[in-house]
Design brief:
It is a single chain. By secondary structure, the chain is mostly helical. 46% of the residues lie in helices and 6% in strands. The strands form two sheets. A three-stranded antiparallel beta sheet has the order 1-2-3. Strands 4-5-6 form a three-stranded antiparallel beta sheet. Helix 7 packs antiparallel against helix 8, helix 8 packs across helix 9 and helix 12 runs antiparallel to helix 13. The C terminus is likely disordered.
Length: 396
């Protein structure tokens, strides 16, 4: 092999790892972890040997400093938003240890013996402990994740060894309590949304009346457009849609693409008669969740926590009217413990009835104005509202 490229770590057919340069083989033992640790040392010896052979004078320290590795890591990202994210969450660790040599930080023992541990994990754990109580747990986890990504990127380029960060402990991110709205607040929200933008009002109403997640609102309306709902009757034409879902019964719709589809879950959405009226009038305004969420939060109304609260509000209103725990789980699309995901018509008769009686709006859906053709930048968020007869729906 040529001597311009670093020698590769290879394995002999008898189990010994070795590297070969300068006309001889350097055996590193039969264990991969130990061999990789020695391989880094051999790469330094190879660099020194190559410099001596070529008559190159090496600097006093040929090791890459942590700050240099971070700079090269950030330069590898062309997207300014991604680069700014990594720079933001690496700046605290770089300010603490930027002047240290990167290679020894990833080696077991750091030159002090095999049982001493990896310095990188100790430094990351110490940083997480120092920041506890000063920054939010989610911010600390982002900082730790940025260091993990840096080490993974650097090890793939031979700047150091792969580091196992499973021993690093951070505080769990506390889950916020779901915010719910009273029925009067939901009514005022729909009224304000109708005045602000009738298009977003229809999305918000379906979000509440069908008790679905914000992402499922986008997919449900996209599915309706793919199946071409007749505006007069509101019935689905066609038994199945390739990308979005299929009709199960008069008031239940099965969505194929949803949150737990990869685990074999089944998402059945109860569409009450009032929800069907709003669904018939709705136009395909937004094709992605971020577009719908941004438009919903822009509605000028009081105490509006966001579209996620509509689903929880609907469930709280169902519980207040006597809905059982199993009914609420089915309305949310949650799997019942020990139950196989399947559709049983009798399970949804009572749920459909109580949803039709409880989740009602005093606001009637208005007719939607014609929408202008969207620009290229807005195609991912807001659609032009025309019905399509073929093709798959975009993923929300």
């Amino acid at each position: 092999m040529g001597t311009s490229q670093p020698p590769r770590l290879r394995r002999h057919h008898r189990g010994q790892f070795f590297v070969e340069y300068a006309g001889r083989r350097h055996y590193l033992g039969p264990y991969e972890a130990e061999a990789r640790r020695k391989y880094v040392t051999k790469l330094r010896e190879w660099s020194a040997w190559k410099a001596t052979r070529d008559g190159i004078e090496l600097p006093a320290s040929a090791e890459r400093l942590l700050v240099d590795v971070v700079s090269e890591f950030l330069a590898s990202y062309e997207d300014p938003t991604t680069r700014a994210y990594w720079q933001k969450h690496l700046r605290r660790f770089t300010a603490l240890h930027g002047g240290s040599e990167f290679g020894p930080l990833t080696e077991p023992g750091g030159g002090r013996g095999r049982g001493y541990g990896v310095p990188m994990t100790r430094l990351v754990q110490a940083m997480a402990d120092d920041l506890r109580g000063t920054l939010a747990p989610s911010t600390i986890r982002h900082d730790v994740g940025a260091v993990k990504r840096l080490c993974s990127w650097a090890s793939a380029r031979g700047y150091g060894l792969a580091v196992d960060f499973r021993a690093v402990e951070t505080d769990p991110v506390p889950r916020s309590r779901p915010t719910t709205m009273r029925r009067g607040a939901v009514q005022r929200l729909i009224t304000d949304a109708m005045r602000h933008d009738p298009g977003i009002a229809h999305y918000i109403a379906i979000n509440y009346l069908c008790c679905v997640r914000p992402s499922e609102v986008v997919r449900l309306i996209s599915a309706v457009h793919e199946l071409d709902v007749t505006p007069d009757s509101g019935t689905w034409l066609g038994a199945r849609c390739r990308m979005t879902g299929k009709r199960v019964t008069g008031d239940v719709y099965q969505l194929d693409h949803h949150k737990t589809a990869h685990r074999g879950g089944m998402r059945l959405i109860v569409v009450t008669p009032e929800a069907r009226v709003w669904l018939d009038r709705a136009q395909l305004y937004w094709k992605r969740l971020d577009g719908y969420s941004a438009a919903a939060r822009a509605v000028p109304t009081a105490k509006w926590p966001g579209p996620k609260s509509l689903e929880r509000s609907a469930v709280s209103h169902l519980e207040a009217r006597g809905a059982t725990w199993e009914m609420c789980q089915r309305a949310l699309g949650h799997a019942l413990p020990g139950a196989t995901p399947r559709y049983v018509a009798g399970d949804y008769v009572a749920l459909s009835s109580i949803m039709a009686r409880t989740l009602r709006l005093r606001v009637a859906p208005g007719s939607l104005p014609a929408l202008p053709r969207p620009s290229r930048k807005s195609c991912g968020g807001r659609s032009n509202g025309r019905r399509r007869r073929s093709g798959g729906a975009s993923d929300g």
